[in-house]
Amino acid sequence: MKTLHRFLVGLVVVALFATACGTATPVAAPTTTAPTVAAPTSAPEASGNISFMVFGDPAELKAYQTVVTAFEQKYPQIKVEVIHLPSQGDYSNRLAADLAAGTPADIVLLNYRRYAGFVSKKALAPLDSYINASTLLKPSDFYPQSFNAFSFQKSVYCLPQNISSLEVYYNKALFDAAGVAYPAADWTWDDFLNTAKALTKDTNSDGQTDEYGLGTEVTLIRVAPFIWQNGGDVVNRSPEGNPSQLAWDTPETKTAIQWFVDWQVKHHIVPTQEEEKSESSQNRFLNGRLGMYLDSRRVVPTFRESIKFDWDVAPLPRGTVAKATILHSDGYCMTSASKNKEAAWKLMEFANSPEGQTIIAGTGRTVPSLKAVASSPAYLDPKAKPANSKVWIDMADYVVSVPVLPAWADVEEIAGAELQQAYYGQKSVDDAVKTAIEQTRKYFTETE
């Protein structure tokens, strides 16, 4: 499984961590001469059957099916098979098996943290010639934080559908019942912690917590924003600017990790390990027994369908040094093994054009990566929850990404396992940090 996992990984650095503001290697300017291949956007031969593999909850699947249906209506000569795997783990396994067999889907959905490993194995097709020839897409129309995240080794490999980030979902009914003010735009770590404490309750006086103030996955990408907010960094840098190892042993970073761990070991404002295994924080929030939940935009379609109480979303609290959150962006990627690349590009282009992004924005699944669509009523629909969808746009200037490494998933897996042990009181933060740095160091020098 480890070898399989390592096959899948990697991502692009698009941020200057010291300022908590995303940057990235610019995409090469469009060529002034015609590309050597026929212009993909107008090729009449784009027809036939293609496949598109996605992951996510059933409500997320519906969002992608909505886009595909609209595409097939516009291009009836192209038929799309949507392959759906609910969990990212199952998705990764299926994709690896399909690639090994030489039968992957024509288009796959990949997070920016995971596509570079595929590039290193030459499993993804570069998109530069398609983008340069397109009359529907211009790189400058996208948020650079998300578009440049999919530029690796001087080529663009995926089209970003979103510029999501980690924010705070909150149950307004529980806030009201506890007499707690809703999160302010400029709330602090102390505000956040005190709010979670006030929302953590034993409602029937049996000595057991029935409602927790906060819930989250315990992973590197969940603690990373708080590291940046405290003036730390996730990785050290070589003189050339390349990531050289985890930077978890700096005072700023260790302080942020300890603050995160203390939610469990000191303040008891989050479910225990056993409780999280029996019922995830996402389901606990859906069931109305969790005050706040940390996640990206992806859960919105499910929350719209399933939640019966009033809820909204707020930014992460600001740190003592900086305001920061982490980039969550998924891209449409064309596999090198695709036998119908022209038709595959047609779907990718349509889905990430203003028309396509407007359609999927209406489902709630994405924070559009196209700036014009993100500021349109399709996304900022005042009648649709969450009411504060604008928070993702307001935080776009503060998104930071984790670094690009083909073996980055190994780093995340090992660091996350150590973080969990500290979070659930099985070892100290110092010991977890030391082990994470030692066990991940080799992955910063591997290229495949």
User: What name is given to the CATH topology of the largest domain?
Assistant: D-Maltodextrin-Binding Protein, domain 2
Structural class: alpha/beta
Radius of gyration (Å): 22 Å
Largest sheet: 5 strands, mixed
Q: Describe it for me?
A:
The chain has 19 helices and 18 strands. β3, α2 and β4 form a beta-alpha-beta unit. The protein has 448 residues and is of the alpha/beta class. The strands form six sheets. The chain has a five-stranded mixed sheet. Helix content is 38%, strand content 16%. The protein has two domains: 7-22 and 34-163 and 328-388, D-Maltodextrin-Binding Protein, domain 2; 165-326 and 405-444, Periplasmic binding protein-like II (D-Maltodextrin-Binding Protein, domain 2). α2 (58-74) runs antiparallel to α15. The protein has helices at residues 2-7, 58-74, 88-101, 116-120, 128-133, 144-147, 172-178, 189-199, 220-229, 251-265, 273-278, 281-286, 300-306, 341-351, 354-361, 371-374, 390-394, 408-423, 429-440; strands spanning 15-16, 21-22, 48-55, 78-85, 107-111, 151-152, 155-156, 158-160, 164-165, 167-171, 212-215, 235-237, 243-246, 290-295, 311-314, 325-328, 330-334, 399-400. Mean pLDDT is 90; it is low at 1-43.
